[in-house]
């Protein structure tokens, strides 16, 4: 480590001078003489985690000690993921105190050893403040810190790595080995293959070269093997190829062809799900692919001109291609299978602090870390909701405390490089020489909603930009102060001009940013002060770190901090899945919703009514008293009102000028999106100055069972393909017998009278519906008659009743209003009433409860006990009278038959407690509410459906991720 200094740091935070140099550490949260552990209530918990698919116990540790305010999920994940030592042995960690002490005391010891603190008292404050912030979930280090620091194994602290490969067999084989060692440690790596000569170039010994795409096969197989060899998560990797590489078209098509193979094999009966027995026969599935484009190429796309593909050895143009056609080919591939993503080379290198030491040519697997080849970055993320102050309804973001925590975390992160181990010698040398850090944040989506900002709004983007600017400006200010105490990074002298130029670019972007309201304006002011200090101190002292900030997915650590949203993402949905102490679970409306309504000026009784509506419907549409102009505040990533794709891109663009690195984020696009829509996203990403992005069109990948029908030829890549034999599975109509049990219900909706007859199969299950309207005229009566026939045919072809219920409830048109049904007092239309009544009559409790449909008795029970679900003794009490109370008039024709059906329903209700459709995560809950497929893989560890976190997937059940952070 470099011990030289260019002068003492200024201000109250640090002092300099021989023999006495070191940082003065300020108190933020702690009290002198009181340890942070003594200020919280601790309790013992039992952690038992099961695989819901087969009921097997994945992990068990009883009597672990945690603060009482930590959620069940956070306790489960930290205990199972981060506690060290074999379970059941004296070496096993048994509480959060041990875990935090193991990490924090290691950081303090290294800080003292390498001269970071001015005195032992400053080291004490550092230790206590760091422990307090971790204990109270204010921030978290990335997972490798919790895995490795303070243990006897190598103390790897970085999650993100960038490798390099040259045009030689020795280098290619080194790539395989280095990548494998990184995967073995549970991390991910990325690299650019563009130095490898193309298949259109000659070898020195004669003959054509294999090309980079062929070598990708070997690396992919290696990653897949290591993944299946016992790692707790999939190997994560990024492969980048420059757009002017002669093999770029083959690179773009790799994933498309494999997706076609997956579909063909699945149609033939092979198990092609993630983790399936036969998925290993498919190639290129362990990497994210990205094309690195230049401004020259993008301008050629806009102008419709040609673009040259260049030989790797000579640099000569060996082929001219239509730039727009190549760009469209990228969009077609991304539309079909989500790969490749795109990285904007000139933008990335325009913000490069160390260009004299090499260009930035690649990224880590999630695309947030971008710096020199053979380097690494350790991450830490702050929980933004911890800095939202709400005094008597007067909200503010605590910029001063936020800045102090950033200084504390940056100091700790830099200390970690002093003692850290690295997977390869080259990575260790580069990281120690440039000391790249990656501070970021989580819970942005929750913060914006809680403050009454729509995610896709100028106000929301202004607040996000201000916080990001303050975070990075404060980080570089502390980096300059550290440079005065323990010296600048080794590569600084060579790159000083470029580094200071980039600092001015950040400061200029901060000055030019638009201020919007009373929340973001004070944060912008604090950021402006920080950037002015960066320019002053950096010129004098240099900088300790070549890079300071990124926005990572914050997968597992986001759950550790009990964050509602990950990284820069918006909220997934308004209703969440929550595990309860002692077992069980429940669905709750996000805690941020009441805060948002309060910020928007709604009174307590209005808030209560709106929250109740959300709890029942899962969205804010037609919520009582909620103004339509406020709907956008509650827009989420999925659901009835999902955020438009360009809304995601605009948010990335708002944060990007204030980050050293990039942003891990996937732009979700609806299944109706076209190839042209993908092109527009990629084009606007370049124009808005984003460094990298990826898109995901719903239902484009084979992550869950899909229809065997081939995609339309218009969605296929332009090159000709041989016609394939497609096996189509058609539904078979199951007709009802001549004699069939049924229920006839009379109803009144908004004064319109009618009768509904619902007939069932003998083994139960709705099979047909007849609707007759009384005195309503021929048009409405005829339409309802035709509608009932269409529904009946659909039921007989196997369309589940819950699908109809999810689609037709809440449909609004006249006649609407009061009904004479005590279970459905109000209906927004006749169709709304019909399917609520059918759900109550034919769906099991758990299914309709997930759809927000309950009887009057159940709603009363919820008011009295907090639960809609009947107690065990109540299930046996269901009888004909209880059934008949569900509708004003019933004419079953056979009382004995009705009694038998009632008994069967009681048994069904009892059997349905461990229902197949029980939710185990927020993603699964959302699927049940909306009747959609979230297009996410199942967790390999616990079987829970994962959800997107940045460019990766996260399991809410056990904390596993498919990425590298």
From TrEMBL:
**Cofactor(s) for this UniProt protein:** adenosylcob(III)alamin
State the superkingdom.
Answer: Bacteria
Domain named Ribonucleotide reductase class II vitamin B12-dependent N-terminal: residues: 47-137
Q: Where is the composition biased (Low complexity)?
A: 1-11
Q: Which residues form the TSCPD domain?
A: 740-840
List the catalytic activities from the record. a 2'-deoxyribonucleoside 5'-diphosphate + [thioredoxin]-disulfide + H2O = a ribonucleoside 5'-diphosphate + [thioredoxin]-dithiol
EC number(s) stated in the UniProt entry for this protein = 1.17.4.1
Residue ranges occupied by any Ribonucleotide reductase large subunit C-terminal domain in the UniProt entry = 158-696
- Biased region (Basic and acidic residues) positions are 709-725, 900-921
Q: What biological process terms from GO does the record include?
A: DNA biosynthetic process
Q: Which UniProt keywords apply?
A: Cobalamin, Cobalt, Disulfide bond, DNA synthesis, Nucleotide-binding, Oxidoreductase
| Keyword Nucleotide-binding among UniProt keywords | yes
Instruction: Report the GO molecular function annotations.
Output: cobalamin binding; cobalt ion binding; nucleotide binding; ribonucleoside-diphosphate reductase activity, thioredoxin disulfide as acceptor
Q: Which of the seven top EC classes does this enzyme belong to? A: oxidoreductase
Q: Which intervals of the chain are annotated as region Disordered?
A: 1-23, 706-725, 886-922
Please state which protein family the record places this protein in. Answer: Belongs to the ribonucleoside diphosphate reductase class-2 family.
Tell me, what does this protein do in biology?
Catalyzes the reduction of ribonucleotides to deoxyribonucleotides. May function to provide a pool of deoxyribonucleotide precursors for DNA repair during oxygen limitation and/or for immediate growth after restoration of oxygen.
Protein's recorded name: Vitamin B12-dependent ribonucleotide reductase
Species of origin reads Streptomyces marincola
The taxonomic lineage of its organism, from the top, reads: Bacteria, Bacillati, Actinomycetota, Actinomycetes, Kitasatosporales
